[in-house]
Amino acid sequence: MEVAQKIINLYEKNFFSLSLGVQNHFCVRMWRLTGKKKYVLPILMNFQFLTLIFSRFFWMMKKEMPLPKLGKEIKKNSKLFLFYKNIMKKNFYENNPEVLFLLILSHFLFNLKSLGMEKYLKDFFTIGKKYLEKINFRPFIFESNFGKVDPSEAINFVYYLYFLRVADFTKEFKKFIISFWEKENNLYNFKRKIYAFTHLIIAESYYYQRFVDPKENKEILEILERNLEKILKFTNPDVVGEVGLCFKLAKTENPDILKKIRDYLESAFVPSLGYIPYSGSLEKAEHRNIIAVLFLTPFSDLKPGPDLVKFIRDNRLGFYVPNMKKGIYELQR
To answer: Are 309 and 332 in contact (CB under 8 A)?
Structure first.
């Protein structure tokens, strides 16, 4: 049995040991790889949960609560979101809660639109997008330390805004990221540097929903190729797998590069455990394992979405929508 299939089997067998967010992360990527309907219901369950959480913040935006206050409110709930993975990031977001709010809001709206939920959550989408359209993003994107402290999330943010047709900083920010991080030679920051470069391509693919233009990403691919031996030596399966996916998403599948990455990921796989371990936890190791599955599985197309409205109607399900005017939840079918 191939390594990718062994990983899939293990995660599906232990699916309910995972948190709802990690279940969603796994299923979204499996859907975009395979298009299998069995992965859609967990995505729907997670999005319903997030909709209920976010209803409070959309009510605040409707009441035109200022951004600094919204930042303070999201800071109180930041334990719900997984951004604080090192002290630099923690300090940045605690000192810039407005950035944290805008990042989380744009991510939610990105998912809302990607999952085809604009029809059911029209009020949410309208309120959120109008709120974003009033914001001057340049200070947050270019004048703060966002792209230096947490470059991968800063890149995500720029592409969320582009996907939502709120603002287009994609080309300008790509130049900024390459200019700043290409000069960074500190080995301590090397992993973040490469992770940032991979996200320029992965974010442009809308997280495995489409392929990207190799010509537009030639410089990034050349940087990754030039640093490949160092990447294999000094990073980890999460980063190595994403580097490989960049070449696949750009359809520039250099056989030598792909073989080295394949060999690396397969050697990181522990047969007795059935996955690529991290901290002795399936939950914590999910990212590197689903990335390995995506890389090790051949694909010639990618599935956008999934379209949750179609899934709900095809399966005679429902979705609870907050009615802001009436102050009640209404079941949409």
So the answer is: no
What is the C-alpha to C-alpha distance for residues 96 and 93, in angstroms, rounded to an integer? 5
Q: Where are the domains of the chain?
A: 1-14+184-298, 36-167+303-333
Please write the tens of the pLDDT for every residue from 167-202.
Answer: 999 999 999 999 999 888 888 889 999 999 999 999
Cα-based angle 130, 132, 138 (whole degrees, multiple of 5): 145
C-beta separation of 247 from 259 below 8 A? no
Asked, as a colleague might, if the bond just before 306 is cis with ω within 30 of 0, I would say yes
Bridge partners of residue 319, in order along the sequence: 332
| Helix, strand, coil percent values for the chain (each to nearest 5) | 70, 5, 30
Q: Could you tell me the pTM of the whole model?
A: 0.94
Nearest by Cα to 96 from 111, 83, 85, 80: 83
CA 95 to CA 322: how far, in whole Å? Answer: 31
Angle at 260 between CA 256 and CA 265, to 5 degrees: 145
Longest dimension (CA), the chain: 61
- pLDDT digits 0-9 by tens, 40-84: 999 999 999 999 999 999 999 999 999 999 998 887 776 555 455
The two structure tokens encoding residue 13: 């067998």
Residue 16 has what DSSP assignment?
G
